[in-house]
Amino acid sequence: RANVSTLQRLIQDVLDYAWTGTTEAPATLDPLPIARELVDQVSGLARERGATVELVSPIPALKAHPVRFKQALGNLIENAVRHAGNGRAVRVRVSGNADGNYARIVVEDDGVGVDPSTQPNMFDLFHKGPSGESGVGLALVKRIAESSGGAVRYEPVSGGGSRFVLDFPKGDAV
Questions:
Q1: d(Cα 76, Cα 65) in Å, to the nearest integer?
Q2: How far is CA 84 from CA 9, 54, 120, 162, 163, in A?
């Protein structure tokens, strides 16, 4: 049963990857309610993993497809919590700011970080890190950001942990 569920999720992720940006026009949206919903969704997993998730507002308006934006941010938040390491107290912080023409959203954790050997290809489709997962999640995040005129990048955190930065075009105030 677990294998069927894993296969279904992989198929859905690949379909989402293929469709992203083909017919979806970015719209101005307020990311804060979406971020709040996502933080609430991972609260149970965070408790199980010994992690805390902090949402820092405000987060500036941005232009993206709402459903795809939620997928991208949700993937980064869930990854931060899932890869925290069992029994390790980890803080996941979601914050945002404006930088020039972009709204920047940062998902940062003080977990185990990303193995340096996997970093150059971490956003490639089907690139599997040490966790052995599908290798679609971060590729989908990248495709979502780029299809909206934005970008994603990874920054290691001194002393351990990860920082993923999502840049989307700034939206009008909502």
A1: 17
A2: 22, 14, 21, 10, 13
**Could you identify the residue written with the tokens 């942990």?**
161
- Give the residue ranges of the chain where pLDDT is below 50: none
| Residue whose C-alpha is closest to residue 63's, from 32, 29, 36 | 29
Q: Copy the structure tokens of residue 147.
A: 């299809």
pLDDT of residue 105: 92
pLDDT at 120: 80
SS percent in the chain: helix, strand, coil, step 5: 40, 25, 35
Position 30: which residue type? D
Q: What is the pLDDT of residues 61-90, one digit of tens each?
A: 999 989 889 999 999 998 888 876 665 666
Q: How far, CA to CA in Å, does 98 sit from each of 13, 19, 75, 139, 172? A: 30, 28, 22, 24, 12
